[in-house]
């Protein structure tokens, strides 16, 4: 992994070079980012020597956008030690130096904090609230431990030992690291002639949120999307494949699926397409109207269900108007799925176009998990945690 070790201004900074050394030894590529106060405790030369990379400590050293290029490079940022000040700034979105700007630019799930401070500071209600806020956003923490503190007292506040921080990185942080996942999103457009198509109201928001949640958990994502106005914020872990029709989506998804650990198909694929697709604009046909003959599209989900190996997980979506659970269960079995996500049509604020959703996740083993009405981002996180624990 590419790891940035962020160092803030506490005495435990003297342990940061040891952490960097252990990470490099474990095969990671490491860059250090330090605050001005951190450099009172540990030198630039030490950090550059152990990491074998220039230190990132000046927001403007190589132009004004290095925090973005460091973010693009980094799979995760570990802040050790993380002071009360650093924790408070991140919880408030304050970006006033190189490291805090990088942290604000980073997805929370890719941040691990190793707090270190005096017990009184650690137990301060503002610090506790800030830590809880950050954890609620998906930031991970390791430590602090109880024990002797630099100020001569004893209590909670000691930074976790470098070896524990390394273990926290390998156990559980980024659970989907090194896994490739496929996501389909958005509507499909089925061409009638050179200027018209049959489409649907899908915005792609749910599928894009799923791609982001998978990437936040460490996965490499292949996002196959039908036409949508959405764009994904630059993320080197999400490869976007833009397609138009169901047949194009089918071709892309079946080509990518064999290399993937799993797939979540959230696209609203058109079941039918016009049998003939004119390459010019069709003329009006007069009072008697016109008849469009439709033929069935391939079912991408069912095709992947037929290709699926024992080590792959396949997740489909269902939008049902009646006998919802029963029909979703039938679909799960018929298409050989591991999970099916049932979209609610009954609840206001759920479904096409809007930013919120409410779903029931049905598993192959018969268990159900019903979500409250949440943002699509939160629904996506819940789906990812359920299907790829
Ligand atoms: O059978 P139904 O269309 O209700 O199934 C919905 C699920 O199947 C969704 O996950 C959708 O992405 C997928 N699907 C597909 N290809 C189709 C039709 C639906 O992948 N042609």
Largest sheet: 8 strands, mixed
Mean pLDDT: 91
Q: What portion of the residues fall into strands of 2 or more residues? A: 15-25%
User: Hetero groups bound?
Assistant: cytidine-5'-monophosphate
Strands of the largest sheet, in order across it? 12-11-8-13-16-17-19-20
Number of helices: 13
Helix content: 25-40%
Morphology: elongated
Low-pLDDT runs of 5+ residues are none
Radius of gyration: 25 Å
Class by alpha and beta content:
alpha/beta
Q: Which tags fit this structure?
A:
about 400 residues; alpha/beta; 5-stranded parallel beta sheet; elongated; binds cytidine-5'-monophosphate
Structure description:
There is one protein chain. The chain is an alpha/beta fold and 389 residues long. The protein is built from 13 helices and 21 strands. The strands form 6 sheets. The chain has an 8-stranded mixed β-sheet, sandwiched between helices. A 5-stranded parallel β-sheet has the order 2-1-3-4-5, with helices on both faces. Strands 6-7 form a two-stranded antiparallel ribbon. Helix 1 (16-25) runs parallel beside helix 2, helix 3 (66-73) crosses helix 5 (98-105) and helix 9 packs across helix 13 (376-387). The radius of gyration is 25 Å and the shape is elongated. The mean pLDDT is 91. Bound molecules: cytidine-5'-monophosphate. Cytidine-5'-monophosphate (C5P) binds at residues 184, 246, 265-267, 269, 271, 297, 299-301, 316-318, 331.
Topology, please?
Layout: E1 2-7, H1 16-25, E2 29-34, H2 44-51, H3 66-73, E3 76-82, H4 84-92, H5 98-105, E4 111-115, H6 119-123, H7 125-136, E5 140-141, E6 145-148, E7 154-158, H8 162-170, E8 180-185, E9 190-191, E10 197-198, H9 205-216, E11 220-225, E12 238-242, H10 246-256, E13 262-265, E14 272-274, E15 294-296, H11 300-307, E16 313-319, H12 324-334, E17 339-343, E18 356-357, E19 359-363, E20 368-370, E21 374-375, H13 376-387
Parallel strand pairs: 1-2, 1-3, 3-4, 4-5, 8-11, 8-13, 11-12, 13-16, 16-17
Antiparallel strand pairs: 6-7, 9-10, 14-15, 17-19, 18-21, 19-20
Helix pairs in contact: 1-2, 1-8, 3-5, 4-7, 9-13
Bound molecules: cytidine-5'-monophosphate.
Cytidine-5'-monophosphate binds at residues 184, 246, 265-267, 269, 271, 297, 299-301, 316-318, 331.
């Amino acid at each position: 992994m590419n790891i940035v070790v962020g160092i803030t201004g506490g005495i435990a900074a003297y342990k940061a070079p040891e952490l960097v050394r252990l990470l490099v030894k474990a095969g990671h590529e490491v860059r250090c980012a330090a605050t001005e106060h951190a450099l009172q405790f540990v030198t630039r030369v030490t950090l550059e020597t152990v990491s074998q990379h220039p230190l990132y400590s000046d927001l403007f050293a190589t132009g004004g956008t290095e925090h973005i290029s460091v973010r693009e490079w980094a799979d995760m940022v570990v802040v050790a030690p993380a002071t009360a000040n650093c924790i408070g700034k991140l919880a408030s979105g304050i970006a006033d130096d190189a490291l805090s700007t990088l942290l604000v630019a980073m997805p929370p799930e890719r941040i691990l904090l190793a707090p270190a401070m005096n017990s009184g500071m650690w137990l301060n209600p503002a610090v506790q609230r800030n830590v809880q806020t950050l954890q609620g956003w998906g930031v991970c923490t390791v430590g602090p431990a109880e024990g002797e503190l630099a100020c001569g007292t004893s209590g909670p506040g000691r930074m976790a030992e470098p070896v524990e921080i390394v273990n926290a990185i390998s156990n559980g942080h980024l659970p989907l690291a090194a896994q490739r996942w496929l996501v389909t999103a958005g509507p499909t457009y089925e061409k009638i002639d050179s200027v018209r198509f049959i489409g649907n109201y899908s915005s792609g928001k749910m599928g894009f949120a799923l791609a982001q949640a998978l990437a936040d958990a460490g996965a490499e994502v292949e996002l196959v999307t039908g036409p949508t106005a959405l764009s994904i914020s630059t993320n080197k872990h999400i490869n976007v494949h833009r397609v138009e029709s169901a047949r194009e989506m089918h071709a892309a998804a079946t080509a990518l699926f064999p290399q993937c650990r799993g797939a979540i198909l959230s696209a609203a694929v058109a079941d039918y397409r016009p049998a003939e697709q004119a390459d010019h604009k069709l003329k009006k046909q007069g009072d008697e109207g016109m008849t469009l003959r439709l033929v069935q599209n391939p079912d991408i989900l069912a095709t992947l269900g037929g290709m699926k190996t024992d080590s792959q997980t396949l997740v489909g979506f269902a939008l049902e108007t009646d006998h919802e659970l029963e029909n979703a269960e039938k679909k799960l079995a018929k298409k050989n799925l591991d999970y099916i996500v049932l979209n609610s049509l009954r609840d206001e604020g759920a479904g096409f176009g809007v930013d919120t959703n409410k779903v029931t996740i049905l598993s192959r083993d018969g268990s159900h998990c019903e979500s409250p009405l949440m943002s699509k981002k939160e629904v996506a996180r819940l789906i990812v945690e359920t299907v790829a624990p």
